[in-house]
Amino acid sequence: MSTVVEHEAASLLRFATAGSVDDGKSTLVGRLLHDSKSVLADQLEAVERASLGRGQEAPDLALLTDGLRAEREQGITIDVAYRYFATPRRRFILADTPGHVQYTRNMVTGASTAELAVVLVDARNGVVEQTRRHAAVAALLRVPHVVLAVNKMDLVDYAEPVFAAIAEEFTAYAASLGVPEVTAIPISALAGDNVVSPSAHMDWYGGPTVLEHLETVPVDTDPAHDPARFPVQYVIRPQTADHPDYRGYAGQMASGVLRVGDAVSVLPSGRTSTVTGIDMLGRAVDAAWAPQSVTVTLADDLDISRGDLLAPAAGAPAVTQDVEATVCHVADRPLTAGQRVLLKHTTRTVKAIVKEIPSRLTLDDLSQHPAPGELAANDIGRVRIRTAEPLALDAYADSRRTGSFLLIDPSDGTTLTAGMAGTAFAAQAAEEAAADDEGWDF
Hints:
The protein is of the alpha+beta class. The chain has 9 helices and 25 strands. It has helices at about 1-10, 25-35, 40-55, 70-75, 105-110, 130-140, 160-175, 210-215, 425-435, and strands spanning about 10-20, 80-85, 90-95, 115-120, 145-150, 180-185, 230, 235, 250, 255-260, 265, 270-280, 285, 285-290, 295-300, 310, 320-330, 335, 340-345, 350-360, 365-370, 375, 380-390, 405-410, 415-420. The strands form 5 sheets. Strands 7, 8, 9, 11, 12, 13, 15 and 16 form an 8-stranded antiparallel beta sheet that branches. A 6-stranded mixed beta sheet has the order 2-3-1-4-5-6, sandwiched between helices. It is globular. It starts with a helix and ends in a 5-residue tail after the last helix. Mean pLDDT is about 85; it is low at about 1-10, about 65-80 and about 435-440.
């Protein structure tokens, strides 16, 4: 089973592009698609026609992702553009995210499921405020791998000192956020240098191209490393002559591996039982792992419904009604203390109230603005929430799936806020752990 899981998971990489305005994100994506032969002939012809209509002699590869009329007219990215492509070595799901500060929430959306983030920097401008903001968002979302793509090297005569200075500054800032790994690559997305093919102009660089790194970056693909989490979506009871007593719980594995014979807790009730069967695609299997969709049967007839969570009895998450989290506010209307909301966590939705907004984060210097009173669109801050019913919530650092949640307006169903339970940045978590250990010697 382990070999099959590793093969299936390692063959797919989700990644997002980010960076400041006009750093060349869409051009990089277009170059990746074009040079990896992932663009259909009619798509390329449409881009060539659109480019000629704008007075450009060469096709503008950014148009392969900037599909909205407003994006093409303004020459910017507004919405997250998802693209799917593949090479012989790996399949990719790419999210091209906007660079403007007012679209920071879109970058949060695109990077929330990414395993790698490509942060672009214009070699002429170096690390700017929006570069630091996007690096902080990537760290906040616990994206495991970050690539610094120093773009437009052709406009600085492919100078190595320019690249080295930018790479040093960015790497130091990323390290302060707790980013575990940064790979710096000098490129020219417009000319194609070091995107898919090695550059003939930068013989001083001996590292991988962008595509080579994307194809070879290691992705943690063993579900056994994570605790099993199975949110119940639907209870199946056929009550037919063939299946008079069948009671199955259908859903998608959020993380980990669940096996027949495992002792599990049903949360939030805390009752325990044993897995007696796992059905997938009409056949019985011995085990299921994320992100497979399966039906689980238990030894005991328990009161289980949509929103309940099955987890190992020995490693179940804590159940709480008091949630402290870092959130990114995505709605145009502000989030205020005392506001009543719905909190959606996996398949469970409960009533909640925003008890307090202790601080708002300033991403350019990571300072905390205390007691802001409210969070406006694109703001990132800390909140304390009280729920009407208990939740089985993991820390986001432990599980991106079961440590995340949404706040929803109960009046019209608008998504207000994306939340991440627990400590914000990995570096802060390490400092808190060190502080907890200080003075204790056993």
